[in-house]
Recover the amino acids of this structure.
């Protein structure tokens, strides 16, 4: 792995630094590309480059293990996560309860698994939905250009100007947060980064010869966008979608930590951490550290995968 | 350049107007009605009608929006029915605390992250670089409240070094009178920002080190120290300046979490309390404020970028 690749790989996600403004031309990276890459072969090369990155593979393994534990674990490890049990509150780890119980008598390991299920479901759904929306918006905006582009990008600017956590807290205080609503709202707050990114790609791709050739041959706008722009920006899109998962996990956990996540008895990692913090002075470590550790582990794993994907893509583009 | 500045200002104005529109819509999606949400479920029909009339809620929406924007333009962010206080006075009281907290953290983070990023770039690939990169990576993947809890558990409960709660004073003077109480909140925000800034600084410095003008400077025999300070530092700072501009809204947003954990009397905590108590006008007033600060931060970032880098030309 070259130093350049590593430098690119370690840049924070686009959504962390959204406003290298769409209007500031120089910040839109124009990377050299093969004229029209043979898609399967290109994807294969990226996968091969990815397979050479130990940290990325480690991240992938952690995500796979977490997913398996959260979805298969409850089948063998049965716990009641609905009815509080005041006879078993704040029990330290012991036989039959590897991670102890919390102040409602819920088994902590079972609760981590249940919280993991909803976290993974919500966050992967958000990444997919937000990316799909962002890609469609960005590609149409960048390819169409002119007034439509200006209007569409101002919409993105407006939505970006209001920090997601504020809107989320407000909506949760007004409406009752359900899984579906959370997915919808988190997606509506997360598609902006990908939209800007893909618009930048579309702007540089639409002047390329192969796109002009399709246009000259009578290819319609929808065909150009769906068959040529989006496939060529796929690498950037996948990297951004991966970072979206990490962002969504942090946002969801933050929301639950502040008490605005899904209401009890729903299990959330952020909610467990927040509840456990109350007992920090009592030394009930098992109510604090497992939840915090699992949030961090998941985000680290997703970020490792995203970094490795970005570096693989970078390496491909260098060839 | 003048044309570019004017165009950016125009865009910023449009975005601010858009932010007010979004906020107005948010205010009107409250299930039931706004007066019902504020007066409570036991208010009588006559009381609801009187409240609606007194606050102009019986006028057409478009007219209400015009009044709303008029108030905002006059610097009126709304009125808290729960606290019986204007949002302006709330914010004016507490914003200095946020500026102190986040400003101190931002300055400290820059003072540490800039040299750190350059040192990493110079020694890239070595053990120290890997260590710093890993630490930044871990910090970056950590929600700020988790970091805050870890700091409280170790430095406050474990070592009794610093209090786990910020000084409970409403004024900046009061906060500064007990600096030990500010250590943990400022440390939390500083660590989070170092993780972000050092990643950017390292990447920017690596890119700058590969430039021809750095090679020329070295070839003509400029000492390594001067190459770094005159060429690498100054050119890499451009991207960090942009980042600082983008951090403006963090004064309130990252403040929100840290103020919640350490109980710092600031705008973020006020927003949280307003959300818990369904004090919608305070929530929306602060949201508009954050939106405007974000737009100004972006504007600053773009203009600073254009001003600092003479190679950038805008038509």
């Amino acid at each position: 792995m070259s130093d350049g690749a590593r430098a690119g790989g370690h840049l924070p996600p686009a959504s962390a630094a959204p406003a290298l403004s769409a209007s500031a031309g120089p910040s839109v990276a124009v990377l050299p590309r093969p004229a029209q890459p043979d898609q399967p072969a290109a994807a294969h090369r990226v996968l091969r480059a990815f397979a050479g990155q130990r940290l990325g593979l480690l991240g992938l393994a952690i995500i796979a293990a977490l997913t398996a534990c959260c979805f298969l674990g409850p089948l063998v490890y049965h716990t009641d996560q609905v009815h509080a049990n005041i006879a078993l509150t704040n029990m330290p780890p012991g036989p039959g309860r590897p991670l102890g119980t919390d102040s409602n008598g819920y088994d902590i390991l079972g609760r981590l698994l249940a919280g993991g299920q909803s976290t993974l479901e919500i966050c992967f759904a958000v990444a997919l939905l937000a990316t799909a929306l962002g890609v469609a918006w960005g590609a149409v905006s960048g390819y169409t250009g002119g007034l439509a582009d200006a209007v569409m990008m101002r919409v993105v600017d407006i939505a970006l100007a209001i920090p997601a956590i504020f809107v989320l807290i407000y909506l949760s205080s007004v409406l009752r947060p359900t899984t579906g609503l959370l997915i919808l709202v988190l997606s509506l707050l997360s598609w902006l980064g990908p939209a800007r990114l893909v618009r930048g790609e579309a702007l540089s791709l639409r002047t390329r010869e192969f796109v002009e050739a399709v246009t000259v041959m009578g290819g319609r706008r929808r065909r150009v966008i769906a068959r040529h722009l989006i496939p060529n920006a796929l690498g950037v899109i996948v990297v951004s979608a991966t970072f979206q998962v990490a962002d969504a996990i942090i946002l969801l956990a933050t929301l639950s930590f502040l008490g605005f996540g899904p209401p009890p008895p729903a299990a959330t990692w952020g909610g467990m951490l927040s509840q456990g913090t109350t007992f920090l002075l009592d030394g009930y470590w098992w109510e604090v550290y497992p939840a915090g550790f699992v949030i961090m582990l998941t985000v680290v794993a997703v970020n490792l995968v995203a970094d490795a994907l970005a570096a693989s893509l970078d390496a491909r583009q260098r060839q | 350049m003048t044309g570019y500045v004017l165009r950016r200002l125009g865009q910023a104005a449009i975005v601010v107007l858009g932010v007010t529109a979004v906020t107005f819509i948010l205010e009107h999606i409250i299930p039931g009605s706004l007066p019902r949400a504020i007066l409570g479920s036991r208010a009588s029909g006559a009381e609801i009608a009187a409240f609606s009339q007194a606050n102009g809620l019986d006028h057409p929406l478009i007219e209400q929006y015009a009044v709303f924007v008029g108030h905002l333009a006059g610097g009126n962010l709304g009125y808290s029915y729960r606290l019986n206080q204007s949002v302006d006075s709330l914010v004016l009281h507490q914003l200095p605390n946020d500026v102190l907290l986040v400003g101190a953290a931002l300055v400290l983070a820059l003072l540490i992250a800039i040299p750190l990023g350059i040192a990493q770039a110079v020694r890239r690939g070595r053990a120290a670089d890997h260590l710093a990169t890993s630490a930044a990576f871990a910090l970056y993947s950590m929600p700020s409240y988790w970091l805050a809890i870890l700091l409280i558990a170790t430095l406050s409960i474990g070592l009794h070094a610093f209090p786990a709660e910020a000084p409970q004073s409403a004024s900046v003077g009061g906060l500064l009178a007990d600096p030990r109480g500010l250590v943990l909140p400022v440390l939390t925000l500083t660590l989070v920002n170092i993780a972000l800034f050092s990643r950017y600084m390292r990447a920017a410095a690596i890119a700058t080190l590969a430039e021809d003008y750095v090679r020329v400077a070295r070839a003509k025999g400029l000492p390594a120290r001067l190459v770094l300070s005159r060429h690498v530092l100054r050119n890499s700072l451009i991207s960090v300046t942009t980042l600082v501009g983008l951090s403006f809204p963090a004064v309130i947003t990252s403040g929100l979490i840290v103020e919640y954990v350490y109980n710092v009397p600031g705008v973020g905590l006020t927003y949280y309390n307003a959300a818990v108590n369904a004090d919608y006008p305070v929530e929306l007033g602060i949201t508009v404020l954050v939106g405007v600060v974000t737009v100004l931060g972006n504007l600053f970032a773009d203009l600073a970028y254009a001003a600092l880098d003479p190679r950038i030309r805008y038509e």
Remarks:
- Chain B has a mean pLDDT of 83.
- Chain B touches chain A through 73 residues (CB under 8 Å).
- Chain B has 14 helices and two strands.
